[in-house]
């Protein structure tokens, strides 16, 4: 589990596996495609490396004891512990980080990678997001 705000060696290794695969996809395709293209290619790259993952994982919302199927889907969960959320947009916004934090909390996962493929160098579009079980849910501005 995550201690003192830092991921374990295993979590770091899994993150590195995914980042390496994503860099290969970005190196081959470059920026400018739809998110779905990057997701499909990342899935193929991870499969070729024999890294276990789930793709398009349903994420129900539990509200007052009721399961609500609201249509949310997690792009990828790698090795059962790492959430991967892909974007292909002009720039990441705070709402994208809040989305990943909420997904981590709802799925009770320790770490996520928010990856924006619409950048010249992929490493500048990757944000690591850690979930602490004691952290409050992300808040959204009403303005």
Question: What layout of secondary structure does this protein have?
Answer:
Blueprint: H1 9-29, H2 35-48, E1 53-58, E2 61-63, E3 66-68, E4 73-78, E5 82-87, H3 94-107, E6 111-116, E7 126-130
Parallel strand pairs: 5-6
Antiparallel strand pairs: 1-4, 2-3, 4-5, 6-7
Helix pairs in contact: 1-2
Can you describe this structure in just a few lines?
The protein has 143 residues and is α+β, with helices and mostly antiparallel strands. The protein has helices at residues 9-29, 35-48, 94-107; strands at residues 53-58, 61-63, 66-68, 73-78, 82-87, 111-116, 126-130.
Attribute tags:
five-stranded mixed sheet; disordered C terminus; 143 residues; globular; single chain
Descriptive account of the structure:
The protein has helices at residues 9-29, 35-48, 94-107, and strands at 53-58, 61-63, 66-68, 73-78, 82-87, 111-116, 126-130. It is globular, with a radius of gyration of 15 Å. The chain is 34% helix and 24% strand.
Average pLDDT, all residues: 90
What order do the SSEs take from the amino end to the carboxyl end, as H and E?
A: HHEEEEEHEE
**CA(first)-CA(last) distance:** 36 Å
Dominant shape: globular
Strand content is: 15-25%
- Structure annotation, total helices: 3
Number of strands: 7
> What's the alpha carbon Rg, rounded to whole Å?
15 Å
Helical percent range? 25-40%
Q: How is the main sheet built?
A: 5 strands, mixed
Strand order of the biggest β-sheet: 1-4-5-6-7
| Structural class based on helices, strands and sheet pairing | alpha+beta
Low-confidence spans: 135-143
